[in-house]
């Protein structure tokens, strides 16, 4: 099949969160299944230093609108995975340091940036159809690309291409003033409760939900949660009304990137059959961050964006009690300045055993997970989560809140450690996190702990099965 991805992030070059990893890994997995995938992406400033070989198309694409004519320059490239890349460049819109904003503030012209991006993606699809080589499916990811599904539906008579929208996190919906309709080339009739209007605002994600031929989200549990008032972020009614076309598909991880047996970022390699070198990895990361090198001491890590959703405030409140024991703790991540301050203050109480690293590169993430015994995942809600999957691949056992994709990827260990793959807790509170962490730390001395590590390392966490489910959805809507 011919598949066009529309996305605002792509790992490792342009990344804010897990969306970037999914776009890169899922497209690669689909390519391995024999499909041809093209990723349409804004030509951000960060891509200038990516080393990509790009060919500029000589003739710009023109977007016509009321009183406006916008030229879009197209650049063709190819990723090492064999996936085609199509970069869309509009002067003044994407040549900035950030993706969505800077200094914690969104760019004020994001409606224009992603409105024109969506229009350009649909025009690419229209031109391909006119040339007799249409895309079978347009697969849009989250709010920045969601309106491509809506605009495609408006032009359904001009092309056979069907659309899929993946909801990676419905807390981010792309809300803009009514006046932003013009950025999408749409008239006032589209600002209606049955269309794009949402509590007096223009809601881009809602538009994609209404128009897409199929909806997916990144875990079965999250697919159920977002249809409830508690976790639907006011879109639950819209999603319920389109529930027949919604599927939950748990994300995978790229084994070529996340593999402790071949990982160039870690000091010593290991696998489920021989895990001894994990101890060397622990000593190495303790040395790297300047903590006491005591490999017999448990090492607990947390790696996430520092925001309320990820439970960073709960982690800060829990750390003093977790550190009362003999564990070493390393916290990595950046985000909300106030929450970062709380985390810094918490680890400062045990400077020989605890460290806060702020933002870290991906190689450091690999080394943290290779050296750790446990990873804390205290998210208040979590559509899927990737860090627990990466951790399990490296024999690092997750301690996680029972929510969203964490429910689908972590099975609570029984007291005898005979079944299960991690430690779950029910309430999003600091005491509940402390209780689960203490349960996990106590388990480290259990005779079966080595078997637990081997068990989590042998889990099937790859992209092959999820990619086949996506391909099945593509075929079902293309044939409808």
TrEMBL record:
The Glycosyl transferase family domain, residue ranges: 292-441
GO molecular function, one term: alpha-1,4-glucan glucosyltransferase (ADP-glucose donor) activity
UniProt: ADP-alpha-D-glucose binding residues: 15
Gene name of the encoded protein: glgA
GO biological process, alphabetically ordered: glycogen biosynthetic process
Listed name of the protein: Glycogen synthase
Boundaries of every Starch synthase catalytic domain copy: 3-240
InterPro entries associated with the record: Glyco_trans_1, GS/SS, Starch_synth_cat_dom
Keyword 4Fe-4S tagged: no
Catalysed reaction, written as an equation: [(1->4)-alpha-D-glucosyl](n) + ADP-alpha-D-glucose = [(1->4)-alpha-D-glucosyl](n+1) + ADP + H(+)
Alphabetized UniProt keyword annotations: Glycogen biosynthesis, Glycosyltransferase, Transferase
Function in brief: Synthesizes alpha-1,4-glucan chains using ADP-glucose.
Source organism phylogeny: Bacteria, Pseudomonadati, Myxococcota, Polyangia, Polyangiales
């Amino acid at each position: 099949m011919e598949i066009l991805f529309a996305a605002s992030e792509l790992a490792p070059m342009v990344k804010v969160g897990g969306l970037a990893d999914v776009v890169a890994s899922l497209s690669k997995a689909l390519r391995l299944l024999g499909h041809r995938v093209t990723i349409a992406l804004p030509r951000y400033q960060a891509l200038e230093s990516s080393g990509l070989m790009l060919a500029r198309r000589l003739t710009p694409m023109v977007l016509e609108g009321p009183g406006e004519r916008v030229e879009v320059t197209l650049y063709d490239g190819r990723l090492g995975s064999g996936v085609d890349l199509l970069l869309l460049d509009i002067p003044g819109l994407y040549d900035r340091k950030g993706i969505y904003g800077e200094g914690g503030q969104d760019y004020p012209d994001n409606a224009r940036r992603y409105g024109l991006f969506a229009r350009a993606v649909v025009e690419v699809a229209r031109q391909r159809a006119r040339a007799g080589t249409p895309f079978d499916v347009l697969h849009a990811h989250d709010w920045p690309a969601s309106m491509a599904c809506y605009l495609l539906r408006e032009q359904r008579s001009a092309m056979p291409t069907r659309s899929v929208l993946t909801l990676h996190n419905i807390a981010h919906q792309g809300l803009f003033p009514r006046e932003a309709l013009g950025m999408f080339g749409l008239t006032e009739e589209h600002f209606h409760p049955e269309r794009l209007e949402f509590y007096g605002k223009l809601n881009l994600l809602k538009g994609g939900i209404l128009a897409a031929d199929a909806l997916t989200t990144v875990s079965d549990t999250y697919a159920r949660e977002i249809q409830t008032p508690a976790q639907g972020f006011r879109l639950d009614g819209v999603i319920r009304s389109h529930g027949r076309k919604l599927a939950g598909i748990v994300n995978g991880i790229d084994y070529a990137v996340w593999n402790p047996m071949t990982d160039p970022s870690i000091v010593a390699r290991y696998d489920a059959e021989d895990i001894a070198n994990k101890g060397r990895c622990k000593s190495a990361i303790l040395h790297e961050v300047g903590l006491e090198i005591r490999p017999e001491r448990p090492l607990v890590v947390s790696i996430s964006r520092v925001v309320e959703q990820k439970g960073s405030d709960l982690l800060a409140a829990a750390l003093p009690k977790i550190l009362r024991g003999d564990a070493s703790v390393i916290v990595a991540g950046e985000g909300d300045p106030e929450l970062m301050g709380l985390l810094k203050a918490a680890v400062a109480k045990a400077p020989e055993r605890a460290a806060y690293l702020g933002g870290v590169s991906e190689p450091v993430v690999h080394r943290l997970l290779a050296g750790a015994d446990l990873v804390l995942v205290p998210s208040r809600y979590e559509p899927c989560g990737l860090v627990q999957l990466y951790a399990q691949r490296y024999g690092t056992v997750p301690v996680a809140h029972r929510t969203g994709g964490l429910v689908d990827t972590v099975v609570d260990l029984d007291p005898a450690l005979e079944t299960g793959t991690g430690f779950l807790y029910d309430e999003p509170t600091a005491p509940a996190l402390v209780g689960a962490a203490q349960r996990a730390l106590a388990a480290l001395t259990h005779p079966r702990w080595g078997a637990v590590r081997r068990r989590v390392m042998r889990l099937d966490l790859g992209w092959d099965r999820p990619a086949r489910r996506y391909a099945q959805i593509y075929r079902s809507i293309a044939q409808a």
